[in-house]
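Morning. Coffee machine broken again, so started the prediction first thing and wrote up yesterday's gels while waiting. Chain of 379 residues, entered below exactly as on the submission form.
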Amino acid sequence: MATTASTPAQSGVFSRDRLIQTLAQSWSYLFLLVVFLFFSVQGTNFFTVGNISQILVNSTLVMLMALGQTYVIITAGIDLSIAWTVGLASVVGARVMRDLMNGAPILGGTPTGLPVALLVGVVLSLLVVVIPGLVNGVLVARIKVPPFIATLGMYGIVRGIAFLLTDGQQVVSNLPVELREFLRAFGNGSLVYYIPGLGVRWFSQPLDLTPDQLRNVDRWLPYPVLVTAVVVVVFGFVLSRTQFGRHTYAIGGNEDAAIRSGINVQRHLIVIYIISALAAGIAGLLYLARFTAGAPQAGEQQLLDSVAAVVIGGTSLFGGAGKIRGAVVGALIIGVLKTGLVNLNVDSLWQFVVVGLVIIIAVVVNQAQALLERQKGHG
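Came back before lunch.
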């Protein structure tokens, strides 16, 4: 039997196409490396443990919102309501914890201890945010309201409820001292501290440090980053290694085919929007811990950044493709860009321009990759 050998021209085309495809698939990782190296060279004290830890902490809010958004966008949807779901979770958590520890009359007037207040506050916050996620899912899956419209309407509803719970105020502060100190220690603390001359300290730094020692403390593994890392692992495992994840891709790729294959698409979509709301709820609780206050508008400015992180990470806005690790890289790119521009004393308004340009680049790269795959399919 005669065999057909590829010509040099064919091999060249194959190698070129394969190189282009590889670059298209991994461009976000390369871009993250390039911008990080650029700011490390051009900035001041950018490549330090303290600054890297701060970038990671600052990225947690966007990253958590992007995790849930990834699930939604893979199904060819979008969730705008998480902009205020984050704030709702922080407000509910702050009010419940405060009222329990202060012994609110509606609760019988008997104050509770810190552990009970924390547990009830966290659980109630996550239960409350399930409601907008459930309603979003029902509207999209059963009533067939377009995701943009359904979640835009919920955006307004959740916004109003969050402000009603704060009596129109911007924040819920006036927390009991014990609660405030615990939240601050967790939201701004780290698992490991390295103090020059004193070595490593676990869980908390010594209280008797001099001002010079305080300035030189390196904080490793901040608690918000550890919490976010656990959520990333869980979300990534579910999406990539379970039947639920495979069904998510199937629905985004071709909903009709998914229905014919026996997938309960309506129920699945409802769960997807609940997952998105829960991720936003966790982000809201971390916001409460970091700033020791609940704020209705806590996630408003991060909404577009979360969508940008998902798109930059390679998730298709048309559904059917995307990975959790891509959303993580996208969130880190945005965090590095914003921190780096501040480090270089660039006007903060340029952050919007730069992030917008990166989004456009990401969409162009994704479209080029899709075009290349279609050409290979027809070849």
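DSSP finds 14 helices and three strands in the chain. Going to sketch it on the whiteboard this afternoon.
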